[in-house]
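note to self: dont lose this again. the chain is below, predicted strucutre after it. 70 aa total, dont forget to put it in the shared folder this time
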Amino acid sequence: MYTFTAVVHKEEDLYVAKCPEVGTASQGSTIEEAVANLKEATELYLEEFPLPHVSRPVFTTFEVAGHAQA
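---
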């Protein structure tokens, strides 16, 4: 059993979910649907390309000063 990360963002009317550890991606009309589709896509990917070892990435946030457009 693996535990992976799902990074989700909204693109127009859909949510896009990506798994940074494996490189899989999927989408859905809700966050839950996008993550469920990502899980299915990742399971199918791992059937074809098993992973011997996966390290979990570290996620953090940072701020960048923005410049106003004239």
